[in-house]
Recover the amino acids of this structure.
């Protein structure tokens, strides 16, 4: 639970490019979780995915988030054991995986780099004891 980062700004799957750009402008992140009307995780958009189009203001009302959305390679469930999470990172090659609850509601992301940093720190603390 401590490894889940939940300060992501979500965007609705039917939002327009203009609405997405507004979210991007107020976010410190470069990944934007896409949710449906029930807050269920549907995929994500990365800043890289929209970089070419985000300044095309003529497309702000006619292009939608689902045109840019990627599917997650795997999901992590909020109560999942860490060995299972690490297996998913290894199998998918992903560096970020979405975390959802049992209903599929978006909770946050877990980053492989953060998990490894915490593990290294735990090992360092253990070896000095």
């Amino acid at each position: 639970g401590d490894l889940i980062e939940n300060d992501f700004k979500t965007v609705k799957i039917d939002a327009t490019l203009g609405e997405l750009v507004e979210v991007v402008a107020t976010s410190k992140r470069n990944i934007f979780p896409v949710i449906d009307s029930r807050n269920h995780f549907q995929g994500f958009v990365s800043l890289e995915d929209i970089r070419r189009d985000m300044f095309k203001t003529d497309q702000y009302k006619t292009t939608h988030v689902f045109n840019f959305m990627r599917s997650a390679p795997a999901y992590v469930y909020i109560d999942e054991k860490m060995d299972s999470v690490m297996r998913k990172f290894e199998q998918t090659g992903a560096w970020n995986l979405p975390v959802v609850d049992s209903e599929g509601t978006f909770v946050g992301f877990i980053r492989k780099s953060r998990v490894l940093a915490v593990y290294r720190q735990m090992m360092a603390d253990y070896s000095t004891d």
About this structure: Residues 46 and 93 are 17 Å apart (CA to CA). DSSP finds four helices and seven strands in the chain. The first strand starts at residue 4 and ends at 5.
